[in-house]
Amino acid sequence: MIKVLLLALTCAKFGKILLTVGTMALSIWAYSLLYGWPFAAGFVALIFVHEMGHFVAARQKGLNVGAPTFIPFFGAWISLKDQPMNVETEAYVAFAGPFIGTVGALACYFLARHYDSRLLLALSYSGFFINLFNLIPLSPF
Fold first, then answer.
1. What is the pLDDT of residue 9?
2. Given pLDDT bands bounded at 50, 70 and 90, which one contains residue 5?
3. Radius of gyration, CA atoms only, the chain
4. N or C: which end of the chain has fewer CB within 10 A?
5. What is the DSSP string of 22-87?
6. How does pLDDT run across 9-44, given as a tens digit for each residue?
7. Are 30 and 73 contacting, i.e. CB atoms less than 8 angstroms apart?
8. Could you tell me which of 58, 97, 60 has the C-alpha nearest to residue 81?
9. Could you give the angle at which helices 37-60 and 2-35 cross, rounded to 10 degrees?
10. Rounded to an integer, what distance in angstroms lies between the CA atom of residue 34 and that of residue 68?
């Protein structure tokens, strides 16, 4: 009985990872239909970096948070199972995604300049736009 319980708990943890990986793969496929798979993979990776900024910040503040979930052409989100208790915590979690995402886009920019890569340059500009868009002061962003 204990083995079955441990197996169920392990599968539940892998289920969260599989949901994130599966929705990322679906997003890469959808974006690749329009932009090609190299750009699609980089774009989804930049969205993932952005969402992990929110995820890590929420965990640092002691909030229970779910793994990122992606929806093609809409973006991604992390589900906060605990709501922030004050404005400072909410702002910290909200700004962490664009901050870390901008660091990722900046890395793409410098790599693009170093390797003279138009793909990385396009990804960096897209990443900067995503993170700037996420700073719009509306609730879902």
1. 47
2. very low
3. 17
4. N
5. HHHHHHHHHHHHHH-HHHHHHHHHHHHHHHHHHHHHHHHTT--BPPPEEETTTEEE--BSS--SSH
6. 455 566 677 778 889 999 999 999 999 999 999 999
7. yes
8. 58
9. 130
10. 23
Angle at 18 between CA 15 and CA 20, to 5 degrees: 115
> Rounded distance, CA 59 to CA 79, Å?
12
User: What is the value of pTM for the model shown?
Assistant: 0.86
**The pLDDT value given to residue 25:** 92
Structure tokens at 106: 């900046």
List of residues 6+ apart from 83 with CB closer than 8 A: 63
Residue 80 pLDDT: 83
How far apart (Å, rounded) are the C-alpha atoms in residues 124 and 106? 6
